[in-house]
Amino acid sequence: MTTLERWLGHARLRPLPTMLGLGALLFFAGRLRWVEPSIEPISITVVVASDAGDAEVRRATDEAMLVALAERAGFVERDSAIRARLEMNVRFVEPTLRGDAAIAEAMRLRMHESDPVVRARLLWLARETLARVTRRTPTDEELEAYLRAHPDRFARPSAISFEQVFVSRQRPDFEERVGFLSASPFAYESDPSLLPAAMTNASPRRIEVRFGRAFAEQLLNLEVGGAPQRVDSTYGAHFVRVLGRSRGHVPPLRDVRARVRAEWERDDRPRRIRQALERMRAAYHVEIRRS
User: Fold this and answer.
1) What are the helix (H) ranges across the chain?
2) Rg of the Cα trace of the chain?
3) What is the pLDDT of residues 65-105, one digit of tens each?
4) What is the pLDDT of the chain when averaged over all its residues?
5) Of 237, 251, 248, 142, which Cα lies nearest the Cα of 205?
6) Which among 281, 153, 184, 181 has a CA at the least distance from the CA of 237?
7) Cα 222 to Cα 231: distance, rounded to the nearest angstrom
8) How confident is the model at residue 6 (pLDDT cuts 50, 70, 90)?
9) How far apart are CA 126 and CA 119, in angstroms?
């Protein structure tokens, strides 16, 4: 038994810390171009179709390494969802087996590799671990560059502040009331309504949700500080006074740092996992078998 295999054997006792440690070992070993001479590569066999191309072979190899890593880290034995699935599968073969005995039999039959649900779970656990152990804190320069490269993701839309007096279309004297208010609408109160009497720094989308598309489109044509103008909606007539308007813009990093970092992490994650898998290849002897 090699040093690496003995070390991996402890994973079944402490799966998560060992997975993290293994990921870190492979990550930093790849950076330092160092591999302990006494560690022999772990042999895995990857079965692909006879006509599989390079991309399919690479994907199958990645998945085989990830499943092997998750298996040696003890996720098969420790993950409750995986255990439940494998115990159910084993009962079709040997109804009397339960608990650890059932899991051992499932692994002997390689059910954790053949069952699509268990395999998908193992792949997810392994990728999550690699993503976690390779995570790093981006610099301000990287975040600034990311913000400039994706302004559409973080741009704040134009905004309008306005107030309005409302005349409900349900009034029997609707037209008369509209005519009465036309001269000096803000001298009177709105009809009872769930619509807000004013909105501050509201985006066109937010206005559309509250008042409807027709209202929002008409509002865009009104001048700031001008006389109240009638704007119609499906609810009735609105006498609107625009108080302020701001253009859409990309905010500075300090105002959207959390969002930029989250987006950066989401985009950086696949690259880190890819690099980690490349470094992991030094720990495996891969045999490609075409069938």
Assistant:
1) 3-9, 15-32, 54-72, 75-78, 80-93, 99-108, 111-114, 116-133, 140-149, 151-154, 174-182, 204-211, 213-219, 253-280
2) 32
3) 999 889 988 999 999 999 999 999 999 989 999 999 999 99
4) 85
5) 248
6) 181
7) 10
8) very low
9) 11
DSSP of 122-168 = HHHHHHHHHHHHT--PPPHHHHHHHHHH-HHHHPBPPEEEEEEEEEE
Residue 33, burial from CB neighbour count under 10 angstroms (0-12, 13-18, 19+): exposed
Determine contact, residues 219/241, Cβ cutoff 8 Å.
no
Structure tokens at 8: 């991996």
47 sits in which H/E element: strand 42-48
> How far apart (Å, rounded) are the C-alpha atoms in residues 208 and 229?
18
231: left (phi over 0), alpha (psi -120 to 50) or beta: beta
Please tell me whether residue 48 adopts helix, strand or coil conformation.
strand
DSSP category for residue 10: G
Say whether 248 sits in a helix, a strand or coil: coil
For residue 4, pLDDT over 80 is answered with: no
* H-helix or E-strand spanning residue 237: strand 236-246
Name the residue with tokens 């905010």.
251
C-alpha 65/C-alpha 70 separation (Å) is 9
Average pLDDT over residues 114-130: 94
Contacts of 268 (CB under 8 A, 6+ apart): 138
**DSSP designation for 229:** E
Residue 137 token pair: 């804190």
CB neighbours of residue 266 within 10 Å = 9
* Residue of 134, 122, 155 lying closest to 269 (CA atoms): 134
pTM of the model: 0.60
Phi then psi dihedrals of residue 161, to 5 deg: -110, 130
